[in-house]
Give the backbone structure.
Amino acid sequence: MSTDSKEKEKIFPSFTELRIYPSFTEIREKFNAPQNFKMYFPREVYDQIVNGSLCVEGTDVLSQNSVTKANNLENQTVFLRRPREEPIQCLVIRPNDLLLKEIKTGRFIRATQDQLEYVNIPEEEGQEVTFALKEAGEATLSYLIHGITWKPRYNLKVESDNHQFDAWADMTNNTKRDYKIKHTELFGGDVHLQDSPVHSRGYGGQCYCAQECCCLRSAPAAPQIESQGELAGIYWYSIDQPFVLIQQSTFSLPFVKPTITIEKYSGLENQFQERTQKGKFQRKYRIESDKFLPKGTITIREEGRIVGQAHLCDLSQGEKQDLDCGDDPDVSFIRNVKTLSQKRDSALYSIRLIIKNSKSKSIKFEYKEIISTAKFTITPKGENALNDDKIQLINEGLQIFHEELKSNNELIYQYEILLEYPNQQDQCQIPQTYSYN
C-alpha cells in the first residue's frame, strides 16, 4: 500500500482532552469514526499504554482486535548503500529481516538499517487496533499512558512583616508528540494503577490521529486553572482554554491561590537515648492553608534569598505541616543523662536538657523526645517540678512546646524517666502505657 493511500485512511480527532494525574494521563479523543475504526500506534507508544485501558466510548463495540504491524516497508522501493559503490535500487520483500530484491538483477540480499536510503518516510513497528462498531458516528477513544505527568511546585517568600505564597502546576510531556488540547484536567491525590511498566525516555513516534497536533505552537493568552473541588478523595482542577503541550517540554501555570499562615521556629525531634547527647536544632516553618494543596516541592526564601527546600505532603484544609529546612547553627542543645538505677525489669534516668540560643534575637523553639519502650513515667524535677506545664506528656514521650528563648540565653529542663520493661512472654500482649508524675 502506498504512502498516499495510507494517508487517506488516517482520521484525526475533533476534540482532545487530557486528564493528567501525578504518574500517568488519560487521553480522550473524539472521532467521527467509521464502523471499521482502525488506530495505529508505534511500538514505543503502545508499550506505554496501561494494560486494559484502551477502549472506545459513546457507541457499542462489537469486537476489538490488535495486530502487530512490522512497518510500511513491504513492497517499498529503497536504495542499498555500500562503500565505494553506487546505491543499488531494491524492493523490500520482508521488513522483519530486511530481505531485499535487487530490481536490476532480480537477486535477493539482506541489509541492515544503516545501509538503507528511503524514498518515503518509513513508519516504525507498531500495533494496529481495530474496533468493530455497531454503527458509524461520534466515538471517544480513551486510554491511559505514562509519559505525561504533572506535579505542583510552591514558592514561599518570607519578609520581615509579611509573606507571599505562589503555587504552580508543572505539566511535563516526555513523549515525542505535540498535543493540541481543548480541555485539560489535573488531579491531585493518591491514585493507584495495577501495572507499573518501565518508563522509557520518550516515544519514538506518534499514532495516526496525532498528525494535526503540531499546527499550533503557542496560545494567544495563558490558560487559567480553576479548582473543581473534591471527588472521591481526589481533588481536581480544570483548564477550559485550548493550548499545545509540546513534546519533550514542561508547561507551567499558576493553579491555586490559598491563604497561608506560617510560623517560624527552631525544632528538634530526638529519640530517647541512655547516653549524653549534643547537637543542633532544625530551622522549621509550620504552614497552614485554607485550601487543599497537593504534594510537591516548596522553595522557601527569606529577604529574597533561598533558605531551604522541602517536600510538602498532601495538605488538607486547616491542617498544619512542618517543613524542615536544615540545621540552625545558632540553636544548640546538650542532653546530659545520669543513670540512677538499672534493674532487670526497669531503669531510672535523670535528664538535664540545656537549650541555648546564640542569636541576636529571640526565637521560638519546640523539643520532642520519643520513647519507644512499652511503659514509661516522666517526673519533672527542679524548677520544672513547680512549673510542670513546661514539660508536656504525649503518647510518644514528651515535648516542650511553644517556648520562647531570648537572645544569647539558655534554658534548662530537668526530669526523670522511669522505663519499665515487660516480661518477654507478655511483651506481645502489653500495649505501650505512660504516666506523668
Remarks:
- The chain has a mean pLDDT of 86.
- The two ends are 89 Å apart (CA to CA).
- The chain has three helices and 32 strands.
- The first strand starts at residue 15 and ends at 20.
